[in-house]
Amino acid sequence: MMESIRFSIAGAGWRAHFFAKIAKALPHKFCLAGIWARDQQKAQALAEQYGVKAYSDINELIVDKPDFVVTSLSWEPLFEYNKLFLQKGVPVLSETPPAPNVDKLCELWAQAQKSKTKILVAEQYFLQPQFSAILNVIKQGYLGQVHNVNLSFCHGYHSISLLRKFLKVPVGKVKMTAKAYEFPVLETAGRNCDIVDGEIKNNRHEYVFFEFENGKVGVHNFSGVQYHSWIRGRRINLQGTHGEIIDNTVRFMAQAKDPAKIDLLRIECGGQGDNDGKFLRSIMFGEKVVYQNPYTPAPLADDEIAVAHCMEMMADYLNGAVPDYTFADALEDSYLSFVMSDLLKDNGTRETEIMPWHG
Description:
single chain; 6-stranded parallel sheet; alpha/beta; 9 helices; Rossmann fold; Dihydrodipicolinate Reductase, domain 2
């Protein structure tokens, strides 16, 4: 892996702050060369906040030759600038999804194949510590063959990417059945603050079944209020031939004869009487470490830790490694999310098509 990962950011919105903050917290790993955005005032403000330069135009970013550019823009311009950077030979780490519809996903795939410029998508959820720990438990065989997953944790392509990771299903055809409901729920919080006015709003709750060609089944079970609510939690349930995970509890047969139940335990610094600062150190499964945070003691939230993993994955990819989440994976998850969105409009069922990236 590169000793110093030098990258630039195209965009100055809420998500762009994640990448800039990570570079500031981990200067020995990441070097933010500069920031460009269509809104020059926003780019200048973000650049000043993190002590880097603001590019005056997109060509200045390209001439600066970063190892890669993080594209963190809204959907339509994200596609256009992803395509532009590929045409110019600038490697890209794109926000999700990398294009706003299926036709443009196909166009972006064709451009990547034509230019041979490397591109990945910063789909971070499977790299969050909790999910990395769960994937490690699965890898070690405690659940046997995982055959069905019920996930009530995140929306769209994030949820789909986790389902596919947990079930280890490749890109390919899938039958999808979707249904949405409206349920009233008390508003308790937003992205930046609590909500205490007692208002009750209807929120859409999505149920989508994925039946994969290998017989495995995934269930997307989610309402957007789960992201910001004190009265709605998030849930996961994975079932395999030899065990099950419900949230952070793993049930399995020890030595093939004795039932066992072990909780995944977060080891954190920054608790009562601790002066070392707040950060995640590791996640334990009994006496085993199933996730080790490589970015300690930086005070990063789980999602920021995951994004840092994405950035390192991109750097490794540029050095010839095979990424754990390929561009084809990202296009597949985005494609399935677009199909899912269409099906939820009329509560339909559909089998997906073979796409160009299926190979």
